[in-house]
Amino acid sequence: MAAPPPALSWALPLLAALAGASGPQSFELPGPRIDNIEVSGGGVLVAGGSCLYELWPELRPRRRLVPAAAGQGCREPPGTRSNLLLPYEEAGGVGVLLAGWTQKDGTCEVWELPAYRQRLNRSEVVSCLPDGSTAGVVFQLSGAWYLAVAATYSTGDSESRLGCEPSQSDEATVITMRSMDNLESKEELGIIKRRKEPLHFVDALQWGDHLFFPYYRLKVRRGGYAEPPSMAVLRQLRPSEGGLTLQGHVALDCGCRSLIVSSSLIRRGRRGWWVGVFHHNHDAKAWNTTAVCIFGMEEVKEQACGSTDFIMNGRSCGAKSIKKLPTLVHSGLVAVYGTVVLNQIVLFLGTDDGQLLKAVLNEAMESSCPEVLYEIKEETSIFPKLRLDPVDNNYIYVSSANKVRRIPVANCSRYISQPECLSAKDPYCGWCSLKQRCTLKESCPHSSSSQGWVNISHAADEDVRILLRFPARNQVAVAASRSKPLTSCMIKIVTPAEIFYENVVLSNSSCLCNLTSPGIADSGCLVLEAALASGSWSITQTFQLENCSRCVRQGQCASCRWTPVSPATTCQEGCDAAASEGITAVRETEHISIRSIEPLWISTLGKSEITVRGENFTRASGIKLVLAGITGCKTDIIKVRNVLNDTQMTFALPPTRKEAKSICVQAAGKKCSPPMTLHYVSLPSCVGITPNTSWISGGRRITTIGRNFNVVDSVIISDEQRANLTVARCPGNESEYHYLTPSLSHAAEGKVVDMLLKVETTFIPCVKLHYHPDPVFINYQLHTELDPDLELKIYKENDNLNISKTEVEVYLSYLNGAQTKRIWFSVQNITKKPDRSTILCRFKREGTDRIDFSTVKVFVKLGNFEHEVKPTSSHIYLYVLILLPIVVGVIIVAFIVTRYKSKELTRKQSQQLELLEYEIRKEIREGFAELQMDELDVVDSFGTVPFLDYKHFALRTFFPESGGYASIFSEDMPQSRDQTSKDESFNMLHALICNKNFLVTLIHTLEKQKNFSVKDRCLFASFLTIALQTKLVYLTHILEVLTKDLMEQSSNVQPKLLLRRTESVVEKLLTNWMSVCLSGFLRETIGEPFYLLVTTLNQRINKGPVDAITCKALYTLNEDWLLWQVSEFRTVTLNVLFEKLPENARGEACQSLPVNVLDCDTIGQAKEKSLQAFLNKNGFLYGLQLDEMGLELVSEEQPRELLDVDGSSEVLEDGIRKLNTIGHYEISNGATIRVFKKKATSRSDVDYSDEHCHLILPDSEANKDVKGAGHKGKQKFKVKEMYLTKLLSTKVAIHSVVEKLFRSIWSLPNNKAPVAIKYFFDFLDAQAESKKITDPDVVHIWKTNSLPLRFWVNILKNPQFVFDIKKTSHIDGCLSVIAQAFMDAFSLAEQTLGKEAPTNKLLYAKDIPLYKKEVKAYYKAIRDLPPLTTSEVEDFLTQESMKHENEFNEKVALLEINRYIVKYYDEIVSKLERERGFEEVQKQLQQVKALFDEKKKCKWH
Asked: How many Å apart are CA 1267 and CA 909, to the nearest integer?
């Protein structure tokens, strides 16, 4: 994995957004959605796509990391997501992070924090499926760390396999235990397999010495099948005792809900509870779709023993089930997090419409009425994982879409008084005596004292509970757990029918009630609500009474059970049949029946009228509507507003917060009707409108896109000159609203009106609608020659209506006797031309009726607009007779004018020639003066040369075009190589390639394969170089053998072509070998002059005008990058004031600097030069990026901000906007410019489209008249060749730097050549002598092809291989010219250049002969040096090997080499069988293949 960049340039726009945004602190991922979130000791980890972001607790970005196998972007490879993030802390406080990704068969990486040094990278650990589940937990056992991971490795569907699933024999594996040392799956550690059905795991939890995995079967999520989810329980045993062992699983029944969507573990002392959000598996969203259920960990552990879903060895029992009543019911819960505050359990809940709720539980696990802590404006669903801030527990992290927010856990300031603060029972809030307001404890001074901060532990009713008993027949007694006199007592039967009891007898601390209503005693399940009040407290609780019929009738109450419950969770017995039967029974026993309630979607404003339809309404009394929301909140009882008749009545619904509520209708003394779901949603909002125009007559169909349009009462067009126009009175669907525009006949010239949405009495602004005049139809042409078919062309004036063919109706009317008949045409298309538009229509006649074309009329209909189109006139001949004399007169006049114009043209051509002559003389004189007078301004000091480290230098030369491979080898290696030595398969393969005969045979065999491409040969050579990085002596022997073999192949054809291209393994191997052996020489001798060249070249380019759009410059070496369209320019010296930045304030920094710019520089270019001047003066960066930085012209009048594009920008004829320059703002010498930090970032100063221009003007502007008195009326004239002297002046300016670089390459410091060069040149001389090659040119070409062509040119053209810099396209073009001159110096061919030769050849034509002499002297000097001994060469190679030990992951290289061996295994074995002496090698090769096959197979065990 590549080390993260020190400068977080990717995060700067995000930081600016954070600084300027209101609301909670947040961080937005620049692209993909959030896939995972976790907290560690020092901050937050957020994963999205293939990127991992580390954030500070306040959500400021800290760093971004990309997994080793990913691309450069966070969306590469597509479909990648994080499915496991597990931070933990080892002994000594060492932080470790385990991260799992779906890419590469389920990759898992282990990083050491905080540097993110990679320890391990292993595939096939987590699920690789796009929607596959993975849950894991890291735990310590006997001093060692282990990972228990449960995953959906396979869906069991053979037809939809993705190719990353395991083999069929291993696809049943679901839970494994792995050592954190290697993450390998082993039988002795524990492997749990499923039975037939695939499973989806939601979470992984550790409780004591047991592990818990909540899950459900995949087929439940696919629908059509319902069963409760389960919890798998496993025991942790030492590896010697069997590792991870399955104890069993137990079903979790939460009101017949089949899915788990989120999970949390709550710990309080030695007790623990598991909290889950359960979801019905049907798609319809109802008020009770989701629920929260709480299960005790000890109970789950004791009950787990079944093995229905897993293959289990040893003891097993029948599957058991734990049934719990929901603690809280809601329509769309998707996330839960539980914690303990002041010994009270607090639940944070996320919803699918972007709400964060908080509920506090009492000792009986009953929920308070949930509080809405935060609502996401976009109403996006909250991510299932909620996490508390690890540093400040008063904040919680909420993720949604691609944004994570930091939300306070309490809103204490909403409580005004102390009683209100304490009665809220929020454990986070308390009354601060010093501040006299409700605050968090940390916000209150002296909060540690008992009276400084008073919380719920001081409340009077902290332990008050209601107790029930049955003293006699038909009697119930209600008492408070605290013995105090009661001031009021209320008892109400809720189920089966709602009955209030007012004949309650109060006696000190209890009250007694007689249950005398008929039918109550016959019910198997009663729900009773009791409310008690004393002087300082009041409490209301709901109880469910089961098996109480005998108790009520006969006073035998031993079997009666009463349980405190929440109202919406009562009397839920069956899941399917029982529920439907109960509904049927209710319908049959009700006096009234309900068929429908409309509407069932309303806004949070409420609804003034909803309609209920049914039967027997006029016969019932006391009809009311019962509206129940989130569990624990008070039920709304709404009386009927109006009974219209026996089948219809209306109610008015109050406003409330957004949620789905249950709604039922109840008559006096009767049961409530079966509940329906009423959806309260937020007010509608608009996103866009299409089309956004209409014609004045109206009737155009408009589609508005947005949210919650199903609660809209009407759409209104607001026109200030007339009353509001209502255009639609019915709700739309949830995301679209369609309506027809009204007529605005009074606005003949067009108008802009507002579209409003009316919800109840509230008007919501939506979008603006543009009215344009009705379309104008010119005429038509009717073609009858295709009889019986008709073709009609209607011509229309162009307008801004963008009418489509589906909106146009065209018909033709004609007389048939006394009747008028119509023909409706089919509109084929509408074509738009500069002068008019054409509507093409066709009609295919099938009858035999004849059309009287003299009576034809053509009509066009657009909505409410209908217009008769007139035909093209047929009196053409009359017009010709009238116009003929006029045409003759015009011709005579034109002749006279033409003669006059001819004379004027001759005069102007003479002026043009004068101007051309003046321009050419001027440019030649200026070019000559510049060559003679321009001083060489070379950079004297450029600071430290930013060299890349060896690893990145080597990888960029090994893999210049394969970034993916380069990233694989960028991973940090472990401290010890012992782990590698333990892997037998890699050791045997390494030993095999260290067999010289085998390796040479292998390479020759691979090169003979037709599909072993040139790319494969280069990759194989690079993998081999990395694998043998620590054995350079052996690699050099291989290079010698392969080079000799290559000479044998080339000598019979053309020896001069040897090593000229890279078409074989040995040629790429030579390139890599040179890079390895010359890396030190490059850094110590060549690096500084090379960096000086790049810096000087940049300086020279920026000395003159540079076009900001194309990057072409006046001063360049490459004709293709020459800016020859430049006008006159001058230097302007600015006094730039740099604003002090808090994050970059230094006492010694110079804040006021003179900066030289050009009057033709854009504002963005002036910013760049100002930042460079600051760096040159102070030695450090200013601290702002270009898009964060603004310039302001300081003047006595109002200061003016300078922008590249603003309202004053010049707009050319073609609509192209010209970028503002220093000259545009008329800034003079000595003007003061202030640099400031923008409040909000704008578009980049250099990111412009084709709609902008700078120095290169469009063709239409380039020929305009020259401004100025000297040439008034004359036109500009520019010729590219006039500016070729600029190439020469640039060459002269950098000539000394270029020569310094060249001579540092082909000189011998201290009369010693680098060992690698001397060794290889002597090797080539020896081979030429052995082959009796007497032509010295051949050896010269061999040396040139092996060193300058193969190594130096690659370096010269790619400075980013050596330095940590970014190479621009312009610099690349200039370096290509220098590299061409460099290679020409090594060429033996004599160059004959003519006047038409390319400029890049002509520039250095006079220098090349001198360079050639120096090169020949260089080659001779090397040849004359004393030969190196074998020990000297081997000592050098051994030292280089030791330098680069542990630089690369050699196992990855061996794995890639093995892939080629496997691919061509049969051909390799066949070759070995034909050769002698390879019998032992064949056995070793077979063993290696077997070990790798077994290794791949065992990855899933």
From this structure: 18
Q: Are 1103 and 1132 in contact (CB under 8 A)?
A: no
- The Cα 1135–Cα 1153 span in angstroms is 6
- C-alpha 1158/C-alpha 1172 separation (Å) is 15
Instruction: Confirm if 218 and 328 have CB atoms less than 8 A apart.
Output: no
Strand partners, 819: 816
The residue among 1155, 1189, 1192, 1188 whose CA lies nearest residue 1172 is 1155
Q: Which residues pair with 837 in a beta bridge?
A: 796, 832
**784-840 pLDDT per residue, tens:** 776 678 889 999 999 989 999 999 999 999 888 788 888 899 999 999 988 899 999
Kindly list the distances between the CA atom of residue 622 and the CA atoms of 299, 529, 596, 665, 872, in Å, as whole numbers in the listed order. Answer: 46, 20, 19, 11, 76
Contact 647, 615 (CB under 8 A): yes
Contact 79, 163 (CB under 8 A): no
The one-letter code for the residue type at 1152 is S
Q: What percent of the chain has pLDDT over 90?
A: 29
Position of tokens 């401004």? 1267
Length of the chain: 1501
Q: Residue 282 corresponds to which amino acid?
A: H
Grouping H, G, I as helix, E, B as strand and the rest as coil, residue 96 is strand
**Sign of the Cα pseudo-torsion (1301, 1368, 1121, 1125, in order):** negative
Contact between 64 and 10 (Cβ < 8 Å): yes
Surface-to-core class of residue 200, CB atoms within 10 Å of its CB (0-12 exposed, 13-18 middle, 19+ buried): buried
The dihedral through the CA atoms of 204, 206, 207, 211 has a sign that is positive
Q: Cβ neighbours of residue 727 under 8 Å, at least 6 residues apart?
A: 714, 715, 716, 717, 739, 740, 741, 742
Beta bridge partners of 707: 685
**Percent of the chain, pLDDT > 70?**
83
pLDDT at 398 > cutoff 80: yes
Q: What is the mean pLDDT of residues 1175-1195?
A: 83
DSSP 1018-1076: HHHHHHHHHHTTT-HHHHHHHHHHHHHHHHHHHHTT-GGGTTSS--SHHHHHHHHHHHH
**Is residue 368 within 8 Å of 632, Cβ to Cβ?**
yes
| Sequence-distant contacts of 1054-1061: CB under 8 A, at least 24 apart | 1055/1333, 1055/1338, 1056/1337, 1056/1338, 1056/1341, 1058/1341, 1058/1342, 1058/1345, 1059/1342, 1059/1345, 1059/1346, 1059/1349, 1059/1350, 1060/1345, 1060/1349
User: Which amino acid, 1383?
Assistant: M
CA distance 956 to 1071: 12
Q: Are 672 and 591 spatial neighbours (Cβ–Cβ below 8 Å)?
A: no
Phi and psi at residue 800, to the nearest 5° = -105, 20
Task: Give the angle subtended at the CA of 646 by the CAs of 641 and 649, to the nearest 5°.
Answer: 25
The segment with the largest mean pLDDT, out of 116-120, 244-248, 257-261, is 257-261
- Cα distance between residue 871 and residue 1055, in whole Å: 83
Total-model pTM: 0.57
How far, in Å, are 435, 573, 692, 715 from residue 689 at the CA level?
51, 50, 6, 13
**Quick one: CA dihedral 657, 23, 429, 347, positive or negative?**
positive
Q: Which residues contact 627 (CB under 8 A, 6 or more apart)?
A: 635, 636, 637, 638, 653, 661, 662, 663, 678
The answer to whether residues 1265 and 1274 touch, using CB atoms and an 8 Å cutoff, is: yes
Both tokens assigned to 153? 């490795």
The amino acid at 195: R
Q: Residue 483: left if φ>0, alpha if ψ -120 to 50, beta else—which one? A: beta
Which residues have CB under 8 Å from 1447's CB, separation 6+? 950, 951, 954, 973, 1029
User: Is the Cα dihedral 1080, 1083, 1089, 1093 positive or negative?
Assistant: positive
Q: At what angle do helices 1479-1498 and 984-993 cross, to 10 degrees?
A: 150
> DSSP readout, 240-306?
GGTSEEEEEEEEEESSS--EEEEEEEEEETTEEEEEEEEE-SSSS--TTSEEEEEEEHHHHHHH--B
Tell me which residue of 762, 761, 710, 758 sits closest to 737, measured CA to CA: 710
